[in-house]
Amino acid sequence: MMDKDSYYLEMALNEAEQSLEENTYPIGAVIVDEIFNLISKGRNRVHPQQDATAHAEIDAIRSAGQAILNAKVNREKFTIYTSLEPCPMCTGGILFANIKKVVWMINDDLGFGGYRKIKDANVFDDRFSEVVLIEEPFEDLKKKQINLMERWSINSNNIVNLRKAVNE
Ligand SMILES: [Zn+2]
């Protein structure tokens, strides 16, 4: 049987591909319960929804709805799978959603990756100590996600290309 982590990361990758097709940053996220039932899927929708906060992890948390609140009451441990190390906003969202395991395809050292920076700042130790973190578990999925991000680099909605267009 296929590894569950790789199965759900692959699902997140499919969401990221769909984001790219919608001309927005290619990030996908998937939430499952502790026996690996699918709870929700999300993807980046910043450009289609014209909403700077419409990140994949937030999208998945919103779509999970009541299940997230019930999980807290029932002490159920949900997992979120995501393309990229979450930004500071999504890191906060994950902690608010009481998610107990975070798995991502690529660390984000150059962009707005925030999870490890905030965790390492030791400012919310009681929260972070309850969350299992798995970084970059699969080299093949990491490469596939990098490929999507490279494809994003030529998209006209990319800020770098928007700036170029303004200056031309
Ligand atoms: Zn985010």
Write the layout of secondary structure elements.
Elements: H1 4-21, E1 28-32, E2 38-43, H2 46-49, H3 56-64, H4 66-73, E3 79-84, H5 88-96, E4 101-106, H6 115-120, H7 125-128, E5 132-135, H8 139-152, H9 159-167
Bound molecules: zinc ion (ZN).
Overview of this protein structure:
With 168 residues, the protein is of the alpha/beta class. Helices cover 48% and strands 16% of the residues. It has nine helices and five strands, in the order αββαααβαβααβαα. The protein has helices at 4-21, 46-49, 56-64, 66-73, 88-96, 115-120, 125-128, 139-152, 159-167, and strands spanning 28-32, 38-43, 79-84, 101-106, 132-135. Strands 2-1-3-4-5 form a five-stranded mixed sheet. β3 (79-84), α5 and β4 form a beta-alpha-beta unit. α1 (4-21) runs parallel beside α8 (139-152). It is globular, with a radius of gyration of 16 Å. The model has no long low-confidence stretch (mean pLDDT 96). The protein binds zinc ion (ZN). Residues 55, 57, 86-87, 89-90 line the site of zinc ion (ZN).
List keywords for this structure.
16% strand, 48% helix, alpha/beta
